[in-house]
Amino acid sequence: MNLSFSTNAFVGFSVPEAIEIIAKAGYSGVEILADVPHLYPYSTTAVELAAIASSLEKNRIRAANLNANTAVGWYRAKFWEPLFEPSLANPDKSARKWRVEYTKKCIDMAEVLSCPNISVTSGRMVPGVRPERSAALLKGSILEIVEYAASKGIRVAMEYEPGLLVERAEEMASLIGEVGAQNFGVNLDLGHSHLAGESPAHVAQMFGRGIFHIHIEDIKDRKHYHLIPGEGQIDFEAIYLALTQIHYEGFITVELYTFPENPEQAAQKAFDYLVKIFTVGQ
After folding, report:
1. Contact, 65 vs 114, CB < 8 A?
2. Residues 6+ apart with CB under 8 A from 98
3. pLDDT by residue (tens digit) across 196-251?
4. What are the structural domains of the chain?
């Protein structure tokens, strides 16, 4: 297992700056935000991508995941709600198509950065649209995306979250089975899983090798607010045991977008806490 940290905490820094800080903290991987102010695919140039690839090599750190969950750049604003729109299940055909094309561009960027996977979400349910209709639209989008990703050698990992169309492990496992593509799996956020009342052992056994990437953060009082590991109630030793039982060897990314004012301290504190629990490969 390898520890990684997400740049979505470093929105006040450039990606190369964030990479250097994250590497110095001790992490062997970095998850890069595929959105403003980082790698928004409609504004990131080939020169900028090359500079990031060079920064990864210089700092001896790997791209663990390209986070394509949000599309804040679509809004051209400083505050965005709803965060996950336009989603892969959006009932508007043109909006849904935009999201599919955006995701394909994220796959292109992942290929350049030798990043093994991108992560996506289902988005929220839309009032007036039945869940089964949204699920059918989502599946159609995913089928198109995973076919494109396979041609590039990239995996697509979906993250489920309470309040979204796909919000529980069983729903995620069902979708993986319906899509039936080897390069489609789960981006398992164990904080979200905790909020859903799921045990680490249960979800680890359910997904097994279908876990392409992992997000972790701490949670307190079942409130969906990402805390630095060690400051909430999640049992990280139980997580470590569950992952060792399925022989998980991928990246575990700490996601603390809730700490944009002091990401350097948050990253270091999280690493110092987690390295005592996880056997970290280099």
Report:
1. no
2. 74, 86
3. 999 999 999 999 999 999 999 999 999 999 999 999 999 999 999 999 999 999 99
4. 6-253 (3.20.20.150)
